[in-house]
């Protein structure tokens, strides 16, 4: 991931602008009485932890690389390689990432206040017509015995995304890095916030408590030992019913940000490490399946999430490709003048 022309400001500028826009939207929703506190400080702690975890494999890979190059003075090499501008950009991104996450979470929690959940009956009915029953019933009939494993796997999403984001953040400036980080910051407001307000829905796991009925999903999860899912379910439902601000709070199914961001990871791996992209696509497929099995999402949520991720990736690619051209044209114009 190297490029002589790329600079960290190529991604830091749009990262700052998008974060400011999302925070401005939160201010507007807060002023209207919908959104609560963004809990930026707590998200900053989470991001710092993610950065700390990512530093371990990053440092090991760096040391392995300079050892392979036969470096005789590693400490001197490390001092030479330290890039003040990159360190400053990483520090700024840590703060901006926390602000973006905090604003997104507060806006997500405000969804049912601004746009009451309305799409669930249509989504559930559509999928029953397509699959002949609720998709989660099919997966439980086949893999109900594996629910505890699926439950634990789904919990991997947050640490995986944190480490992936920070590994990209720590890498050298490149066009691939610019595209990945621009796509990352755009995904939250463009797919997550806008999508959740346009397609306000809660997901299969909340269908009974919101609309009445006895689907048996929660009972199945209890019987099969989905402890993590049930704890999260109770946590989110309590935050929703009591209207309090909670870290990672907010209920929203369509589109699935779990799946959209897993798609971002797969696209990033395809861009920076093509030989390993299969792992990213496999992870995406497993997160999608797990989200349906555990009842967090309709199958359709994944389709819309992936479509949104692909669109944002395309937009981010346009920004990345425009930067060298713009710089070249500016340089030519200056030379001619």
Write up this protein.
The chain has 337 residues and is an all-alpha fold. The chain has one domain. It is 76% helix and 0% strand. The protein has 16 helices and no strands. Helix 4 runs parallel beside helix 10 and helix 14 packs antiparallel against helix 15. The chain is globular and about 70 Å long. The chain starts with 8 loop residues before the first helix and ends with a helix.
Detail the topology: elements first, then pairings:
Blueprint: H1 9-31, H2 40-68, H3 74-81, H4 84-109, H5 111-114, H6 120-131, H7 135-143, H8 147-154, H9 157-170, H10 175-198, H11 207-211, H12 217-224, H13 227-242, H14 257-272, H15 277-293, H16 299-336
Helix pairs in contact: 1-4, 1-10, 2-4, 2-9, 4-10, 8-15, 10-14, 10-16, 14-15, 14-16
What tags apply to this protein structure?
337 residues, mainly alpha, 16 helices, disordered C terminus
């Amino acid at each position: 991931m190297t490029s002589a022309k790329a600079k960290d400001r190529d991604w830091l500028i749009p990262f700052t602008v998008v974060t400011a826009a999302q925070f401005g939207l939160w201010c507007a929703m807060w002023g209207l009485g919908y959104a609560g506190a963004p809990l930026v400080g707590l998200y900053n702690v989470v991001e710092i932890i993610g950065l700390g975890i990512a530093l371990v494999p990053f440092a090991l890979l760096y040391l392995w690389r300079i050892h392979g190059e036969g470096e005789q003075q590693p400490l001197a090499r490390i001092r030479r390689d330290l890039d003040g501008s990159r360190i400053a950009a990483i520090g700024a991104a840590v703060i901006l990432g926390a602000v973006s996450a905090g604003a997104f979470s507060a806006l997500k929690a405000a969804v049912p206040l601004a746009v009451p959940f309305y799409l669930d009956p249509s989504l559930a009915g559509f999928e029953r017509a397509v699959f002949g029953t609720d998709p989660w019933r099919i997966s439980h009939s086949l893999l109900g015995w594996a629910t505890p494993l699926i439950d634990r796997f789904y919990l991997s999403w947050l640490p995986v995304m944190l480490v992936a984001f920070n590994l990209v953040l720590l890498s050298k400036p490149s066009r691939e890095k610019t595209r990945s980080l621009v796509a990352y910051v755009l995904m939250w407001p463009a797919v997550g916030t806008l999508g959740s307000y346009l397609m306000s829905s809660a997901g299969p796991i909340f269908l009974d408590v919101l609309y009445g009925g006895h689907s048996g999903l929660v009972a199945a999860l209890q019987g099969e030992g989905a402890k993590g899912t049930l704890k999260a379910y109770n946590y989110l439902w309590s935050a929703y019913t009591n209207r309090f601000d909670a870290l990672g709070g907010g209920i929203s199914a369509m589109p699935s940000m779990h799946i959209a961001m897993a798609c971002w990871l797969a696209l990033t791996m395809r861009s920076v490490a093509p030989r390993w992209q299969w792992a990213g696509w496999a992870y995406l497929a497993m997160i999608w399946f797990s989200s349906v099995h555990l009842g967090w999402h309709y199958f359709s949520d994944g389709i819309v999430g992936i479509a949104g991720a692909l669109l944002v990736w395309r937009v981010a690619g346009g920004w990345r490709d425009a930067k060298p051209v713009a710089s070249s044209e500016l340089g030519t114009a200056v030379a001619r003048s």
